[in-house]
Amino acid sequence: MGDLQLQEAVLRRRKLRFAAQKSFFDKSNLFYIRYIKTFAMLKLGDLKPGDIVLVNDEGVEREGTVVRVSHENRQALVDNGVQEFWYDLDHIRPIPLDENQLLKLGFEKEMMNGEVKYKKGSFRLVTPKAGDFSNIEMWWREDRRHFNFPISVHDLQNLHLDMTKVPLEKH
Question: Does one domain contain both 76 and 104?
Answer without folding.
Answer: no
